Amino acid sequence: MSAQAARSARRGRDARRAAREQTAAVSQPYIVRNVPLTELCSDEAIEIIEANADTVLQEIGIEFRDDDEVLELWRDAGADVDGVRVRFPKGMLRQLMATAPSEYTQYARNRDRNVVIGGNNTVFAPVYGPPFVRTSDGGRRYGTIEDFRNFVKLAYMAPAIHHSGGTVCEPVDLPVNKRHYDMVYSHMKYSDKPFMGSVTHPDRAADTVSMCEILFGKDFVAGNTVCTSLINVNSPMVYDATMLGALKTYARANQAVIITPFIMAGAMGPVTPVGTVTQALAEAMAGVALTQIIRPGTPVVFGLFSSSLSMQSGAPTFGTPEPTLVLSAAAQLARRLKLPFRSGGSLCAAKVPDAQAAYESAQSLWPAALCGVNFVLHGAGWLEGGLVSSYEKFVMDIDQLGMMEVLLKGYNASTDGQAMDAIREVGPGNHFLGCAHTQAHFETAFYRSNVADNNSFEQWEQEGSRDTVERANDIVKRMMASYVPPPLDEAKDEELLAFIAEKKASFPDSNH
User: Fold this and answer.
1) Which of 44, 59, 393, 507 could make a disulfide contact with 353, Cβ separation 3.0–4.6 Å?
2) pTM for this predicted structure
């Protein structure tokens, strides 16, 4: 092939690739799964876990620290309160949890992007929480508000990301006590997908609700869920004041809460999957029931973050078999409780987006997809055990999420899906490339990766012998260059900015 022909072919491929990348406006708001669930835990083992969790709740109890109001709520509800330790009569929490909805709609400012969380639905959300970011151009560094906005934009443009998420990275260039304004505003301004609110202080949760009232209208927020929040249990068996304060704020505002036992097995929970799930169930039931005491009917999600621990180094590990066993059993338990379920996505301990990152993430994502996770947090961008949001891995992960989306939609058994007309037309000994059915589906047949290189060795070599990370870096740059913000009502934008400016001016900066 001549150099000119090669350049022409490359331009054609680039144009087709760009067209595929510019599909955010036509993406599905969430996945409705059409394949059977994978359930790894037997009914007998599930019943043992439930009985043992009841024992933990009744005999050992859960601590609710530095929150007298919560202790009083438990006392009034009939629990045994001893200092900060709360024990629960058998059956009490299940009775309280009965008012929690089995699924709920989180409204986006673009109603075409509303998501239904629970049931047979799967929602993919990006990475949450890392203080560092990484690019192949600039290496590893602390995250900034510019990085935060960039990840929001990438998530907005990614068809396989259904939810804008929350702390897509920590913008450490802003004061701790004020950065939540810019973070929540970024989700509201640069995306029209659903988002998560601040949980690092009750006042910051209240600010999130106030900003939602500006964006959606106070009356609408009072009757609908427009924000989801992540409440982590301080495992083992402790709720701290920060998480309890945010939980109360969101529950009273009818905004969704994800109750997440955060367990690294071997350190924050037992080393066995059955023991880990037992502890997680007890912790989650206590938090879910508390939301229903505060406001019956509050949307709440049974969450779980589980990893194993290296007994040699003490470091968390990912992609290993034990967390898959934990996840599957927890998903089964959530369904028995008629609650939506949240767990992790593309998790890895790799320091760079290499082979380790790929296989550990795949081993973490597959169970989430097949075992019926409704809200998949950390779906894209996670690196270094959650310490890093990686631009290149974000792109690599959304490619895999797109594959999961196709898989979970299952089989097309319609007349067109059966393809009998194609089989009749082609007959024995011929090929299907030119038949009418193939031509009709030529552009849409089979998932096409934007990241993988499936060309010949000679073509790959001629185009620079680039590896996956280099190709992903190119895609990040193309996506950022082509980003167009979704329209936002100017009056609401001005009101949001005025609210933020007034609140920031009302107290001094602090890094606490």
Assistant:
1) 393
2) 0.94
